[in-house]
Design a protein that fits this description.
Elements: E1 5-13, E2 16-25, E3 28-36, H1 39-43, E4 51-54, E5 56-61, E6 63-64, E7 67-68, H2 75-84, E8 88-94, H3 100-115, E9 123-129, H4 151-160, E10 163-168, H5 175-184, E11 188-191, H6 198-206, E12 211-212, H7 228-236, E13 241-242, H8 251-260, E14 265-266, E15 279-283, E16 286-291, E17 294-296, H9 309-318, H10 323-330, H11 332-337, E18 354-357, E19 363-368, E20 371-372
Helix pairs in contact: 6-7, 9-10
């Protein structure tokens, strides 16, 4: 763990901004000193002191830096290194729908990086199993290997690498009861890649599902006579992912969700193309093309993103959110969703996961568990 160090500036605590200093010892926050200030003071400070926020938490990461989670080998470590340089201090490595032998191989390769953090990488908290328990009629960019869900299979995969989050289409036979079983076993479950109705969404929430995978994308939309899965989320959800690259979801739709879902949080759904030039990359079994700011399949379907969490923060603030609110949506809400009490907030005793930004919200420093990351 990192030795004793101090970080000065406007420190965002759960109670609001403090102008002062944060002390780190043994990888954790030892103390926070200073006087409370308003966000207006932070934004208009003539001294332009740096802004210190909790490190970003991304629960939906397929790739980055030219590497894809499903590649196995050292891919996940390289992905964590790309994203930490954009402020992501904790993440879930996210799988794709694929034949089970390929998912097993990817999970086996993820085991080591989940056990031990790379000194220059983000903490990989575990796995987000996005497929294969999804609706084959709503694959989005997922390969066509959707299959019925089975608890024995989930346990088998979990034995290879820790699963923290599972995406499921609740309308498929047996999946509602499985949601209850998964929740009882300690897995977080969210609804996604679904053709389900509003009623299916409400039923899934009542059976223990708590979130929605990339809200609006790969799910039935809102109509005033058929509210769909989007309607269920807007009417009943406390949590939902959203991809704020301003390409997957129109800013107006993001605003609707912000008013409806108290703890909506950001994910990147990033692919190997994140941090890379335009060209062709792998996304599971697919070859995807990065061009014009997006990533697409040959038929034009959006296939993940090139978003990073620092840009997500800037996009939210650019839409008019206060820095403190935007920060919660790239860190603390996701931490709460995953049941993490010692990440996603700058408070005494928590892990010293933090980002230091300038007045334009550009990264100056990233610290993970008290250890400085080389941003060069």
């Amino acid at each position: 763990m990192g030795d004793f160090q101090q970080v000065e500036g406007y420190v965002l605590t759960p109670q609001g901004f403090v102008r002062g200093r944060l002390d780190i010892s043994g990888g954790r926050i030892a103390a926070i000193h200073g006087e409370p200030v308003s966000e207006a003071q932070v934004r208009h400070d003539p001294q332009a002191l740096p802004i210190v926020l909790p490190g970003f938490i991304d629960v939906h990461v397929h790739g980055g830096g030219g590497h894809d989670t499903m590649e196995g080998g050292d891919a996940a470590r390289q992905i964590s290194r790309l994203h930490v340089r954009h402020g992501t201090t904790s993440m879930l490595a996210t799988t794709m729908t694929a034949p089970m032998d390929e998912i097993r191989a990817a999970m086996s390769a993820l085991a080591e990086v989940c056990r031990e953090r790379d000194p220059q990488g983000a903490r990989v908290l575990g796995v987000h199993l996005e497929g294969p328990y999804i609706n084959p009629g709503k694959l989005g960019a997922q390969p066509d290997f959707a299959k019925p869900a089975a608890m024995t299979e989930v346990r088998e995969l979990h034995a290879l690498a820790p699963i923290r989050l599972i995406t499921i289409a609740p309308e498929l036979p047996g999946n509602l009861d499985l949601i209850t079983e998964l929740r009882a076993a300690g897995y977080q479950v969210q609804i996604g890649h679904t053709l389900g109705t509003y009623e299916d969404g409400v039923a899934a929430l009542s059976h223990g599902a708590q979130g929605f995978t990339h809200l609006f994308n790969a799910m039935t939309g809102l109509h005033h006579r058929e509210p769909g899965m989007v309607g269920a989320a807007l009417a009943h959800a406390r949590y939902a992912e959203i991809i704020p690259d301003l390409l997957h979801v129109h800013p107006g739709a993001i605003r609707v969700a912000l008013r409806s879902i108290p703890c909506m949080f950001c994910v990147t759904d990033s692919t190997a193309a994140a941090g890379q030039p335009d060209g062709q990359y792998k996304l599971g079994r697919h070859t995807v093309t990065k061009c014009m700011g997006g990533v697409r399949l040959p038929d034009g379907t959006l296939a993940g993103s090139t978003l990073t969490m620092d840009q997500a923060l800037r996009n939210l603030v650019g839409m008019g959110l206060e820095i403190a609110d935007a920060s919660r949506r790239v860190s603390s809400h996701a931490a709460e969703y995953l049941g993490l009490s010692d990440r996603g907030q700058l408070t005494v005793g928590a892990w010293a996961d933090l980002v230091v930004l300038d007045r334009e919200l550009q990264l100056q420093r990233v610290v993970v568990e008290g250890e400085e990351i080389d941003l060069a």
